[in-house]
Description:
Blueprint: E1 3-4, H1 7-11, H2 33-70, H3 83-95, E2 100-102, H4 112-123, E3 128-135, E4 140-149, E5 152-163, E6 166-176, E7 179-182, E8 187-194, H5 197-203, E9 207-214, H6 220-230, E10 245-246, H7 255-267, E11 285-288, H8 289-299, H9 304-309, E12 313-314, E13 319-322, E14 337-345, E15 351-358, E16 369-376, E17 382-389
Parallel strand pairs: 1-9, 2-3
Antiparallel strand pairs: 3-4, 4-5, 5-6, 7-8, 8-9, 10-17, 11-13, 12-13, 14-15, 15-16, 16-17
Amino acid sequence: MLLKKTAWFWKNGFIAVSFILMLNVSGCSDTTPEETQAGETIIKDQERTDHSQENAEEITEIFADIYADLYKQTAEVNKAADLEMIRNIINRLGENGYPAVDSRNQINMSESEQVVEFCKKVDARKEAEITILEVGYSGEFVKYDLHTKDGNVDVLRSYYEYENGNMKNEVTENYQAQYWNYTKEGYLIFSGVWFSEELYVLTLSGMEEHTALRVQPLDETYREFGRKYLLSIGFEQNNMFIVDWSEEDFGDLNFYDLYDILYSKVNGQNVPYAADGNLADDAVYQIPKEEFESVIMKYFNIDSQTLQSKTVYDSKNSAYEYKPRGFEEAEYPEYPYSEVVGFTENSDGTITLTANVVFPYADDSKVYAHEVVVRPLENGSVQYVSNRIIPSEDNCRETWHVPRLTLGGR
């Protein structure tokens, strides 16, 4: 069974050492053609490693200079960067000749034509190499050194963090891409498995690595709509964008999951109704009618009677029963995201957004497509009107989602 990478793995500083398969070569002076070829391969691999190290020194120096400039007026060096700061970094890297994109695929890749040309050489089974940079939002970046020959792609992935004015290499891993695809949606997606001695001792397995980089540019209006209306909800522990529903028929839309997500947006803090510390007991709360409805009705045009029919409502106490998600309802922390690829402004003031669901962990730049209708309000807020999955034979199942097992206290 393969161990799968999570952000937790990196943030806890697990330093991996690449696992190298040693070649057993017999004889001292007489060599066969196969042995000579293997020796030449080792020399070429060493040459690529030396080139990568020189390349890394140049890139880390560029990064350190860029970060020093951009963080001059920032109190905390590792403070999470905003979108414009990351855009500036990517533009500066492009000016130095490097293809670069942000880790959230929210900014157009610099020098993207280099990546397109490299993908063409992979398809043509030619030998080529390229370095692609992925810029994070907390003072980190990933450097991908890619080498292709005979249609195979070798990946050298190096993870760096900015500390005390320097870029520090935290993790380096090496693997051959088992999956490689430049998709029609404009993404470069590749994945593989890397090994380390320490990791193998602990897990008897390798570590899966999945990478999805948007190569083709995307209209900035699409990106703004996506960030404002779709990414703010996302796919974690909710079914808002995976089932069909509308204001006329809310269907299987789970309002308890949405309450968990929307509560912090309305009140500026997390939901105070937590799971019971005693795992043998199930915590069930009664949320006053006004409190529950003030959250849901800010984002949905729904009346009390309809909302009560979709939840567990205690009319005697004028309260909604609420049971937090338990351990059995936990999801694996790898989620897709919606990427707007078109929109229509409707005569009634609503906007219909067409979006692809991108799931890097599944090596898929279009799990399915969906249409979301939103109603922007004058005060800057929004109401969600409907969601519709666009039918297609290529649609995949939402493997990341675990439904909430119970409504309220039932």
